[in-house]
């Protein structure tokens, strides 16, 4: 069998919160001025109450509202595939499985949390959401999600991407998102750059500042973030909860679970339900592998300390592995992995030794992507291709040792909007960052 | 329930051949010189024997080879969705269902036949396939399919598309397809245009001639066509066979089955298994609706007569509705519907009154596409959006009459590669062809 589905109606009905399973509590975010823990009240300025409660929750299981399940069922459950062609191509005794999150209409795992966030904002009376987007993956997901709940969505899109990736902009606009090139003249944060240069290329840092400023200064508007925070990772656990049941159906439990890490949301979404077993002591030998680009090696080369979540220093201080909030990674094509830090939950589990990490260069990642496209047929996103590369390396090690390991990775998205990078790779013109 | 799957392993194991169910036999293709029926032997110059046998078969059910099922299972069965949000938005008592063929890796229904054709060529000892592609949908599907069987694939791509749609080219190249801008210097057919103007924009007619010429003059090479022919339509019946069982699971039999018609393959794929019931006399009231663009109104305004299948007159004469083989439709964005004729099987059934047809203008089709994207969340291909427009019109009529009709249409592909057309529509700049 190549594909494992779950009958419709069998989407998980609860999210798994891994925080209460940690052997020691997560360090709280700190106010940069007082160095005291930030109170939930402060977060209510930019997030609605239900999401703030989820952010600090110590409940292990949290009900998924019916209204959210209803929208998720447009594409969930997503298939789990056995990568038989890839196994044959590699000549490995390993069994390779992947969870296919690329089948969502926005093409990635991102709508799993976008739909939940839009819903909780809706029931909290919020009329508008702001967010930022770099390559456009998150902005697409939030535009897609908000339209179902009649919420307006404004996306500050880094101007260089706005100009270079018009199709991502059109995708957001087709889903009624309002896309603003950043820096813009509409916020104080943007204005200082815009007025000096209306064609300023922008940065994710500036775009975040614009989105947060607007949410903080308008009563009808909140802010939405696509990764890093506890509640975002929580919403992504549907991936791993489905995958666990599909792996059971296939008759296996993974020896290795793999995901690419940018902010940590697709990695956590797949791995946390399996990591929960390890934290409970049931699966002591489970290997959980976080894969990052060598161009932005947060876990493998960063320091574990308090740092700002954004570039300009508007957010609370967060305890995480960081390359420094002013670190600017090279412009690799896996735009979703270009984050100086990582989700605090992922960092804590890495620090405690429950997670391993590895970093790859861009060219070897694209080589893996093309191998996957030519065996399994799906064009993977550059971000997801980091997980593919690690899965292939594990499978090749199995070939050397003869181990029949069961490998599971997250295919977090497709690469239909990244074909210019494939073109460069195929022509031998890709920078080996 | 929004989505109806079939457990893996339940892909249909036989294709349905509608030819033997016709109340009178299909007129055979004729040799343009002798006006006598073309012998199967002549077709063997460009097609392998198993496909020629399927082309003229009078067997009602034809086994799908295991090797083909194995590759189809990478994405099949495809989901059947109930378009609940669209129903609510329209306020209709009608029940709207759609079969989602956009989930295949090349993004449309085309690989259903591409995989079968690649397989039969493989077992017939063919080493290379040639084909033509306009917008790139078919070329992508054949590149995708041939890589699984180790067959080389050369795609003659109309030069203007080659230059304007680089992402489609990259998609084919990632799947190992060799993409040649047409007219090329590699064939006599291409040379006469290429030598006068190396930047000649090309046409589908020239590209077909190049692909056929190469297949006819090289022993290791055959030609592959993505629509029109009986065996192509046969391979697409997996769509409707799955949909019938999924509709049963949902508890309904459709009153109206709708598909867009270019050459006829996605339309036939969905509708033939239902039309078979009508031909057998079991469902006399079933309405089957073919939807075409007003810019290329083959069924609604064409003549039913013998005509060439290609523009330059290399093919046999085919009995079909035609606008004339030299008809050049305006450059609408639904490139897959710009064909002067239609599949003979579809034309025969239309002539006999088993099928209705309707034609729409480009702007109203994009309006329907955006309505669909904003209710059901999926960005449809411009081709598929013709079916959506017809489904919406049926549902609105039900609102007026109070009828609770069950409507089923084919979402034959996604629109990720057509976002420039959406951009034009959203800006009010789309030509109303």
Tell me what the structure shows.
The structure is a homodimer of 433-residue chains. With 433 residues, chain A is an alpha/beta fold. Chain A has helices spanning 40-43, 49-55, 66-72, 84-90, 111-123, 137-147, 159-164, 166-174, 188-194, 204-217, 230-250, 265-279, 298-301, 344-351, 362-375, 382-401, 419-426; strands at residues 3-4, 14-16, 61-63, 80-82, 95-100, 128-133, 152-158, 178-182, 221-223, 256-260, 287-293, 303-308, 317-322, 356-360, 406-411. In chain A, helix 6 links the parallel strand 6 and strand 7. In chain A, helix 2 (49-55) crosses helix 11 and helix 5 packs across helix 6. The longest helix of chain A is centred in the middle third of the chain and has 21 residues, at 230-250. Chain A binds chain B through residues 1-5, 7-9, 70-71, 73-75, 81, 85, 103, 105, 107, 144, 147-148, 166-167, 170-171, 173-176, 370, 373-374, 376-379, 416-417, 419-420, 422-423, 426, and chain B through 1-5, 7-9, 70-71, 73-74, 81, 85, 103, 105, 107, 144, 147-148, 166-167, 170-171, 173-176, 370, 373-374, 376-379, 416-417, 419-420, 422-423, 426.
Instruction: Outline the biggest β-sheet of chain A.
Output: 7 strands, mixed
The number of distinct helices of chain A, counting runs of at least 4 residues, comes to: 17
Strand content of chain A: 15-25%
Kindly report the average pLDDT value of chain A: 94
Let me know the number of strands of chain A: 15
Strand order of the largest sheet of chain A: 1-4-5-15-10-11-14
Count of the domains of chain A? 2
> Which architecture of the largest domain in chain A per CATH?
3-Layer(aba) Sandwich
Distance between the termini of chain A: 38 Å
* Rg over CA atoms of chain A: 20 Å
**Broad CATH class of the largest domain in chain A:** Alpha Beta
GO molecular function (chains A, B): L-serine hydro-lyase (adding indole, L-tryptophan-forming) activity; pyridoxal phosphate binding; tryptophan synthase activity
Pfam families (chains A, B): PALP
Function (chains A, B): The beta subunit is responsible for the synthesis of L-tryptophan from indole and L-serine.
Keywords (chains A, B): Amino-acid biosynthesis, Aromatic amino acid biosynthesis, Lyase, Pyridoxal phosphate, Tryptophan biosynthesis
């Amino acid at each position: 069998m190549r594909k494992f589905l779950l009958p419709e109606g069998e989407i998980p009905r609860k999210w798994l919160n891994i925080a209460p399973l940690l052997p020691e509590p997560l360090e709280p975010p700190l106010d940069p001025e007082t160095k005291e823990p930030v109170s939930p009240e402060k977060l209510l300025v930019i997030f609605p109450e239900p999401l703030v409660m989820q952010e600090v929750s110590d409940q292990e299981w949290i009900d998924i509202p019916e209204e959210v399940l209803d929208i998720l069922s447009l594409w969930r459950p997503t298939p789990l595939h056995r990568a038989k062609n890839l196994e044959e191509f590699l000549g490995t005794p390993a069994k390779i499985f992947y969870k296919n999150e690329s089948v969502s209409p926005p093409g990635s795992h991102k709508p799993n949390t976008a739909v939940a966030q839009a819903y909780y904002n809706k029931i909290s009376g919020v009329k508008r959401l702001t967010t930022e987007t770099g390559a456009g993956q998150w902005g697409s997901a939030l535009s897609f999600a908000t339209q179902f709940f009649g919420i307006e969505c404004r996306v500050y899109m880094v101007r260089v991407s706005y100009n270079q990736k018009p199709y991502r902009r059109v995708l957001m606009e087709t889903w009624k998102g309002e896309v603003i090139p950043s820096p813009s003249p509409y916020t104080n944060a943007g204005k200082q750059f815009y007025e000096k240069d209306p064609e300023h290329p922008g940065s994710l840092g500036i775009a975040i500042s614009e989105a947060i400023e607007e949410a903080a200064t308008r009563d009808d508007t909140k802010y939405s973030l696509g990764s890093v925070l506890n509640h975002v990772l929580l919403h992504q656990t549907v991936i791993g909860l489905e995958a666990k049941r599909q792996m059971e159906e296939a008759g296996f439990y993974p020896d290795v679970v793999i995901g690419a890490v940018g902010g940590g949301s697709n990695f956590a979404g797949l791995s946390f339900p399996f990591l929960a077993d390890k934290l409970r002591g049931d699966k002591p030998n489970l290997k959980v592998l976080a894969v990052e680009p060598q161009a932005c090696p947060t876990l493998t080369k960063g320091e574990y300390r308090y740092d700002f979540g954004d570039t300009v220093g508007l957010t609370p201080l967060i305890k995480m592995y960081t390359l420094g909030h002013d670190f600017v990674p090279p412009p690799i094509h896996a735009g979703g992995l270009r984050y100086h830090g990582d989700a605090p939950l992922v960092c804590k589990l890495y620090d405690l030794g429950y997670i391993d990490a590895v970093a790859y260069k861009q060219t070897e990642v694209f080589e893996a992507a093309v191998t996957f496209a030519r065996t399994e047929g799906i064009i993977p996103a550059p971000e997801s291709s980091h997980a593919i590369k690690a899965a292939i390396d594990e499978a090749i090690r199995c070939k050397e040792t003869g181990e029949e390991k069961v490998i599971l990775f997250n295919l977090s998205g497709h690469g239909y909007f990244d074909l210019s990078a494939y073109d460069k790779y195929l022509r031998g013109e890709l920078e080996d960052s």
